[in-house]
Structures are given as structure tokens and as C-alpha cells.
Design a protein that fits this description.
Blueprint: H1 2-6, H2 16-21, H3 28-34, H4 38-42, H5 47-50, E1 52-55, E2 59-63, E3 73-77, H6 89-110, E4 114-118, E5 135-140, H7 147-152, H8 161-178
Antiparallel strand pairs: 1-2, 2-3, 3-5, 4-5
Helix pairs in contact: 6-8
Domain HIT: 38-147
Keywords: Hydrolase, Nucleotide-binding
Protein name: HIT family hydrolase, diadenosine tetraphosphate hydrolase
């Protein structure tokens, strides 16, 4: 079985499918009522309650509530836009700097062996929140996608979101100050 030899090279997240399907096949008006934008809603809440670890001038860093791994961060602009092409130069520059801030802080906190950094634009590309563009930063380690994830559909994340928040928030603040953000 060729797939069995390579299964550990992939980061499977079968539990995300129900979340993604929740957005598919629904009229836009129904989506807006039923599924408010998590990034717009997060801006209205207390930072810790919303899992926001940093607020910049144009964008913010937030923990993923359903992480692929401990430390899974997302960077989103404050403006509700669905595509990178809709961002202005100031937003793009700050988001780029926040990617650097995130990588530096995650490296200090967790010492990962690598990172996945990506953006899904549109439902067809797998965007869970297609109307509000955001960048995922996922720390990776060799063998972090294990057998129980694939066979059992269970992802073991060894750290609570509160612990992750408390570790990353001060590191992100420190790194962002050093970059003049």
C-alpha cells in the first residue's frame, strides 16, 4: 500500500469537513445570519475571550479555535474582504510583518521543525471563512500527523488554547515591539 508508506507526510484534518460543509450550499443571506464572520466577531470581544494574541493597526493575530497543531495562528485584516487582491499596501505590509512576528514567537515557544503558511481564497479552495481572507501559520514537527488522527479521526493537541494564549501573547508582543509594530 503506497499511501500507507506516505501517510505521515500529510497533515490530515478530517474533523474540519463538517465545519466546511456548514458553509456550502447555503444562500449568502442565510450564511450571514447563520454563520457570522469569526474574524469580524472577534474584533468586538475581549482579546483573551476572542483568542486574539496581537492587535496591529490594520490586522490582528488570533489563535485557531480548531488547531491542526499547538500554536496554530491566523492573521486577518480588520476589514472584511475575501481576497488578498482587495487589501491595500498598508494592510499587506503589516500582515507580512505579522507572519514574521508569528514565526519568531512560535519558534521561541515551541521550537518547531518547520511551518505551513497558507491562505485559502474562496470556498472551492477550502476556505472555512471565505468572505474574510486570513493566513494560517501552523508549526510542524516530523511525525506530528499520527495514526490515531488518520484511523480514528481524532487529533491530539497536547496543549489547551488558554495555555497556548498565555505562552504566545507575551512573545508576540515582544517580537512585534522589536519590529516597530
Amino acid at each position: 500500500m503506497e499511501w500507507a508508506e506516505k501517510w505521515y507526510d500529510n497533515l490530515w484534518a478530517p474533523w474540519r469537513m463538517s465545519y466546511i460543509k456548514n458553509f456550502s450550499g447555503t444562500k449568502n443571506e442565510e450564511k450571514n445570519e447563520k454563520n457570522k464572520c469569526i474574524f469580524c466577531e472577534a474584533q468586538k470581544l475581549d482579546m483573551k475571550e476572542a483568542l486574539v494574541v496581537f492587535k496591529g493597526k490594520f490586522s490582528f493575530i488570533i489563535l485557531n479555535k480548531f488547531p491542526y497543531n499547538s500554536g496554530h495562528l491566523m492573521i486577518a485584516p480588520y476589514r472584511h474582504v475575501g481576497n488578498l487582491t482587495e487589501l491595500n499596501d498598508d494592510e499587506m505590509l503589516e500582515i507580512s510583518k505579522l507572519i514574521k512576528v508569528s514565526i519568531d514567537a512560535l519558534t521561541k515557544a515551541y521550537k518547531p521543525e518547520g511551518f505551513n503558511i497558507g491562505v485559502n481564497i474562496g470556498e472551492a479552495a477550502g476556505a472555512g471563512v471565505p468572505g474574510h481572507v486570513h493566513i494560517h501559520i501552523v508549526p510542524r514537527w516530523k511525525g506530528d500527523a499520527n495514526y490515531i488522527t488518520i484511523i480514528g479521526g481524532v487529533k491530539v493537541v497536547p496543549q489547551s488554547l488558554e495555555e497556548t494564549y498565555n505562552i504566545l501573547k507575551p512573545l508576540i508582543e515582544e517580537v512585534s515591539r522589536n519590529l516597530g509594530l
